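Deliverable D2.4 — example input (structure tokens):
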């Protein structure tokens, strides 16, 4: 019994240490650029390389933010990190159509939490941590900062992260100069950025980009 109590105390202290340290780290990253992420390190070690260039919120065209909201998270401004409506819709779809491609419900906030603090995977531990960090950054960062960080840590190609690096590589211009079409093309590759090339879009990618571009007109950005 004493050994069990001692073990529980140790576990409790470790959990408390994790909670405190995570709050401190998230608080710091509210104000400073993210230097590197666990996912970037793991990919670099596996041979993917590492290309990135930090761009502040105001150094990125609003077209990009509207495009990713239209493509990835239409209710971005109305949820608190997790879109439970989308979760239920995805569960219903996957149950009704088990042989079709599984539909996800990952929000921009969840993707930002995962890409910034965690590794990629489908186990319950990572999913639980993703939910925890999603609520944490919603509380400490707010929507504008989440979009800013998302635009810098999102994978845009093999070993390439962030809209600035992608804009320079694919279109030869700064992210601040992205047109609506170019932003829509960048957003269109996000389900599989290692497969698609927005500078040489396929017919499918062009159709997807056109759908995103049409939706962008109804997306308004908020501070």
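Example output (designed residues):
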């Amino acid at each position: 019994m004493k050994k069990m109590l001692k073990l529980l105390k140790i576990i409790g202290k470790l959990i408390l240490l994790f909670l405190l340290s995570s709050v401190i780290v998230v608080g710091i990253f509210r104000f400073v650029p993210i230097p590197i992420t666990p996912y970037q390190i793991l990919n670099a070690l596996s041979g993917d390389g590492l290309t990135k260039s930090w761009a502040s919120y105001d150094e990125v065209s609003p077209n990009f933010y509207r495009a990713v909201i239209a493509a990835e998270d239409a209710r971005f401004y109305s949820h608190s990190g997790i879109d439970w409506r989308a979760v239920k819709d995805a569960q219903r779809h996957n149950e009704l159509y088990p042989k079709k491609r599984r539909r996800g419900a990952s929000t921009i906030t969840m993707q930002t939490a995962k890409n910034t603090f965690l590794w990629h995977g489908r186990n319950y531990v990572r999913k639980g941590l993703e939910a925890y960090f999603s609520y944490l950054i919603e509380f400490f960062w707010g929507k504008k900062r989440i979009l800013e960080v998302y635009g810098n840590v999102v994978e845009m190609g093999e070993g390439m992260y962030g809209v600035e690096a992608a804009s320079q590589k694919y279109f030869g211009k700064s992210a601040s100069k992205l047109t609506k079409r170019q932003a829509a093309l960048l957003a269109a590759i996000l389900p599989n950025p290692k497969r698609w090339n927005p500078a040489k879009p396929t017919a499918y990618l062009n159709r997807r980009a056109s759908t995103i571009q049409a939706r962008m007109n109804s997306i308004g950005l908020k501070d």
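The first strand starts at residue 51 and ends at 52.
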